[in-house]
């Protein structure tokens, strides 16, 4: 027992010493106003992944309430027993036809979906080739798998090509996995090139957690934007879809393989019909004219923010302590990273912004490379130009620029 005690207390002490202690903060979200209330104080929220503002949309609330009244709040079991509700079946059919696949299978979360894919497909001798900046859910499953893990240079087709050409034992397979939009940099993967290089040499898997709902015609995501179809597409519902859960899209044969053998599917309670019905309503909205309008507003907000931020950054004097490190990364997505440099500086700026009523998160190494601590600003369709003005003004005050 003493071994556990030493190990656990040591790890906790280390988190404190490295100034990397994570915490969960209880908060209340008021979506329409992009407001977040923490400990009784209200802030403008620039750290939400609810990119289209759908989490509190009246049509989703209505769908949820109708479903609750008729079907209750729980699914009552695994989909392999009695948990596979009509609502869930309809959701899967809709997803498959909307995204152009034979089949869709819903998992309770994106984390589980990625684990399920790697767990089921990768056997001893197989190789996983993942983008270096892939999400923790992908990396963790890959590390725990019996296969060999290679990490190709971020968004670099040549690097992928090299790994794909390494010798492989007979009957072994390779699985290439990347994301549509990267969560820390907001950049988009060159999926067309990666798909072409992978074709016939391995299974191509794309996790489009941050692209679905936002990119491509009807919000069908990054793959549709590039007009490619990976062997498996992962979409998650906790971001632009405004709810939670995830689905994998695949061929009929692959889907059958998962239904027979995917343990996280077979031995986990299916999502409640209420959630399935809400997700269905959300996807309908996303692919409708309303969805187009929300995406338009989001795009306008992104353009407006970048324009204002660039003006602000260009006004930074040469002797400003952060002059050489401050940088707005090029990003066409709702994720807008502002590099600050050192972890402590990023924390200080984020704290000062909080005092001015702006909520956003500082992302520090080791989540991002050394000396690239940043503020991750996320924009949504619920923001107004006035809110973005408030953000910019707060930045300019925190960076001490306003009267120079
Ligand atoms: C958020 C995220 C996930 C996890 O999805 P959840 O549904 O929140 O578990 C997986 N992959 C990527 C790239 C993500 O950004």
Description of the molecule:
With 404 residues, the protein is of the alpha/beta class. 41% of the residues lie in helices and 17% in strands. It is built from 14 helices and 15 strands. The chain has helices spanning 2-17, 58-71, 86-99, 110-121, 136-144, 157-164, 191-198, 222-226, 252-261, 263-266, 273-286, 289-314, 343-355, 385-398; strands spanning 27-30, 35-38, 41-45, 103-107, 127-131, 148-152, 174-179, 203-207, 232-236, 246-250, 327-328, 335-341, 358-359, 361-363, 373-378. The strands form 3 sheets. The chain has a 7-stranded mixed sheet with strand order 4-10-9-8-7-5-6, sandwiched between helices. Strands 1-2-3-13 form a 4-stranded mixed sheet. Strands 11-12-15-14 form a 4-stranded antiparallel sheet. It is globular. The relative contact order is 0.15. The structure holds pyridoxal-5'-phosphate. Pyridoxal-5'-phosphate binds at residues 109-111, 114, 135, 137, 179, 183, 207, 209-210, 236, 238, 246. Pyridoxal-5'-phosphate binds next to helix 4.
SSE layout:
Blueprint: H1 2-17, E1 27-30, E2 35-38, E3 41-45, H2 58-71, H3 86-99, E4 103-107, H4 110-121, E5 127-131, H5 136-144, E6 148-152, H6 157-164, E7 174-179, H7 191-198, E8 203-207, H8 222-226, E9 232-236, E10 246-250, H9 252-261, H10 263-266, H11 273-286, H12 289-314, E11 327-328, E12 335-341, H13 343-355, E13 358-359, E14 361-363, E15 373-378, H14 385-398
Parallel strand pairs: 3-13, 5-6, 5-7, 7-8, 8-9
Antiparallel strand pairs: 1-2, 2-3, 4-10, 9-10, 11-12, 12-15, 14-15
Pyridoxal-5'-phosphate (PLP) binds at residues 109-111, 114, 135, 137, 179, 183, 207, 209-210, 236, 238, 246.
């Amino acid at each position: 027992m003493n071994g556990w005690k030493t190990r656990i207390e040591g790890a906790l002490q280390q988190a404190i010493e490295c100034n990397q202690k994570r915490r969960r903060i209880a908060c209340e979200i008021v979506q329409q106003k992009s407001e977040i209330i923490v400990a009784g104080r209200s802030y403008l929220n620039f750290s939400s992944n609810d990119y289209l503002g759908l989490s509190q949309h009246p049509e989703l609330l209505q769908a949820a309430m109708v479903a609750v009244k008729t079907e209750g709040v729980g699914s009552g079991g695994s989909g392999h027993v009695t948990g596979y509700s009509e609502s869930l079946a309809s959701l899967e059919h809709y997803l498959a036809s909307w995204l152009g696949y034979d089949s869709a299978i819903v998992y309770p979360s994106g984390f589980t979906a990625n684990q399920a894919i790697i767990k089921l497909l990768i056997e001893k001798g197989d190789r996983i080739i993942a983008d270096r900046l892939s999400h923790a859910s992908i990396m963790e499953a890959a590390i725990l798998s019996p296969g060999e893990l290679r990490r190709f240079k971020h968004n670099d087709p040549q690097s992928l090509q090299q790994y794909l050409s390494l010798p492989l034992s007979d009957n072994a397979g390779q699985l290439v996995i990347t994301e549509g939009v990267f969560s820390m940099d907001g950049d988009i993967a060159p999926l067309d090139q990666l798909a072409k290089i992978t074709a016939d040499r391995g299974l191509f898997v794309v996790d489009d957690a941050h692209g679905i709902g936002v990119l491509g015609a009807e919000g069908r995501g990054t793959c549709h934007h590039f007009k490619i179809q990976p062997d498996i597409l992962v979409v998650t519902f906790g971001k632009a879809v405004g709810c939670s859960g995830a689905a994998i899209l695949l061929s009929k044969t692959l889907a059958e393989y998962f239904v027979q053998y995917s343990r996280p599917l077979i031995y986990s309670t299916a999502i409640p019909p209420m959630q399935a019905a809400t997700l269905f309503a959300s996807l309908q909205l996303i692919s409708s004219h309303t969805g187009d309008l929300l995406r338009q507003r989001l795009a306008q907000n992104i353009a407006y923010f970048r324009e204002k931020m660039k003006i602000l950054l260009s006004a930074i004097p040469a002797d400003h302590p952060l002059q050489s490190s401050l940088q707005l990364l090029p990003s066409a997505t709702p994720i807008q990273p502002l590099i600050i440099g050192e972890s402590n500086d990023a924390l200080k700026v984020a704290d000062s912004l909080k005092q001015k009523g702006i909520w956003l998160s500082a992302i520090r190494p080791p989540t991002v490379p050394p000396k690239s601590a940043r503020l991750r600003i996320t924009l949504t369709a619920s923001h107004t130009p006035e809110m973005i003005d408030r953000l910019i003004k707060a930045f300019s005050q925190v960076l001490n620029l306003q009267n120079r």
